[in-house]
Amino acid sequence: MADILQQGETMDAMEPGGNPQEAQAKRKRFFRSFFTKKLERKFDEKQLEIPQRLLSLMDVPFEEFTPEDKVTYETEIKPLTFVFVEHLMEVYETMGRPRRGWEEMLERIDPSPIKVLASLVIHEDEKAQLIGDEPDPAELAPIVSAPAEKISVRVYGRGKEQDKERWWEKKLF
């Protein structure tokens, strides 16, 4: 029976009174986007274990989040955002930085956690290119040395005392 069921399909859909719309919604939940698949493969490659519930939540649109999903997203996925982005960035660089292709794939995905992560990868790449293209401001700035003009300072209040010897200037012998 398990080989008859398609990926994501449940026994409820196979029952005579099963609701096909519910089955469709459940199938969507198990759909893995290109980005999620690549991220999952990257974690497997590095032998890092990520709970499947987090990976399956990546492709769920924000609109379809249950209160439980929202809590999971806020407490478990958001704190790991930069870890996910770092690994997706490695995938992006391995593929040769196909910016246009990633942007086209992002347009096809509903707003979801994986869309946010993939967008951050593109944003980080933009930022890295801007930093790489612009020369370092420290290199451009001339070295500031002592001013060429001498400034004379007049000391006030030493007119009459100038003749007096100070205690530290007194000769002992």
Structure, described:
The protein has a domain of 104 residues. Helix 3 packs across helix 6, helix 6 crosses helix 8 and helix 7 packs antiparallel against helix 8. With 173 residues, it is mainly α.
Q: Topology, pairings included?
A:
Layout: H1 11-14, H2 20-29, H3 34-45, H4 52-58, H5 67-77, H6 81-94, H7 99-107, H8 113-133, H9 137-140
Helix pairs in contact: 3-6, 6-8, 7-8
Can I get a quick summary?
This protein has helices at residues 11-14, 20-29, 34-45, 52-58, 67-77, 81-94, 99-107, 113-133, 137-140. It has 173 residues and is mainly α. The protein has a domain at 32-135.
Share of helix among residues? 40-55%
Q: Report the total helices.
A: 9
Order of helices and strands: HHHHHHHHH
Number of strands: 0
How does the major sheet shape up?
Answer: none
Shape: elongated
Radius of gyration: 33 Å
Query: How much is the average pLDDT?
Result: 76
Instruction: Quickly give the structural class.
Output: mainly alpha
Distance between the termini: 113 Å
Low-confidence stretches: 1-18
Strand coverage percent: under 5%
